[in-house]
Amino acid sequence: MTIEDLHDKLNELNIKPEQYYLNGIYGAATDDYKIALRIKELFFLKLYYVYYKERGVIASEKIMLDKHEAYSYFLSQFISRKIYERKIDVSVLKDITTDEALTLTDLRDIYEKSMKGDKILADVIVKYFKSR
Predict the structure, then answer these.
(1) Looking at residue 131, what is its pLDDT?
(2) Residue 117, SS3?
(3) Residue 119's pLDDT band (boundaries 50, 70, 90)?
(4) Does the predicted model carry a pTM greater than 0.85?
(5) DSSP per-residue codes, 10-47
(6) Beta strand extents in the chain (DSSP E only)
(7) Range of the domain at 69
(8) Cα separation of 58 and 68, whole Å?
């Protein structure tokens, strides 16, 4: 997956560009008050930083070496936000089936569309459910 693919996945989730920052390429012009992904090259390594920044201060940050792990984690932050906006207690997700969780969270359409394509969002959704 590329940064452009990640941007497309955010569009599939109906996430507005002003809600995220993707390494200065996609999304908002600044990373303040956004869920952000920044990529830094350090010699032969690429480091992927996923964080939320508020008033110029990084409130939470996860640093990863694996691009796919970073992109999945970034997407899961928005899935989490969608579930939170529906005022669903995420602790119930661990006690129900994936099918029930898809219905409860209203993510079924996104999941089914992803299953017909590259399955990336479907995998992220299922991993999110299982992690709760």
Answers:
(1) 84
(2) coil
(3) very high
(4) yes
(5) HHHTT--GGGEEETTTEE-SS-BTEEEEEEEEETTEEE
(6) 20-22, 26-27, 34-42, 45-54, 57-64
(7) 3-131
(8) 22
Residue 118 DSSP SS3: coil
**Among 40, 18, 44, residue whose Cα is nearest residue 30:** 18
Q: At what angle do helices 67-85 and 3-12 cross, to 10 degrees?
A: 20
Residue 45 main-chain phi, psi, to 5 deg: -105, 150
In the chain, the number of structural domains is 1
Q: Provide the pLDDT for residue 15.
A: 95
With a cut of 90, say whether residue 94 has pLDDT above it. no
CA distance 44 to 36: 23
